[in-house]
Amino acid sequence: QLRVVESGGGLVQPGGSLRLSCAASGSTLEYYAIGWFRQAPGKEREMMACISGRAGSTHYADSVEGRFTTSRDNAKNTVYLQMDSLKPEDTAVYYCASGPPGATMDVDFQSWGQGTQVTGSA
Predict the structure, then answer these.
(1) What CA–CA distance (Å, rounded) separates 25 from 62?
(2) Residue-level pLDDT at 55
(3) 3-state SS class at 106
């Protein structure tokens, strides 16, 4: 099973950018989909983006479409989430998770990282 660990969170001003990394181990990243999720205090977990295994097709939630971009570097066993034009409401703990290559639903993702905090200053 693919294990994942997130990194790259931090404090960012409105309009700023951050790049999160999701480092994978234990198996071959190429054959897994990676989903990006976030959970803000008092809110339910939200799926923001995913990138499929093999073909690398991407899907985004409406709330981040055009601002966030996910990509993968199979040689480095790492998936990235580039976050631009950040807003205070993007403040949350961000998670990546791995699943079967065609996974697109929250319930499809099986192996989760510990999360990384992103804080957008007001």
Answers:
(1) 30
(2) 85
(3) helix
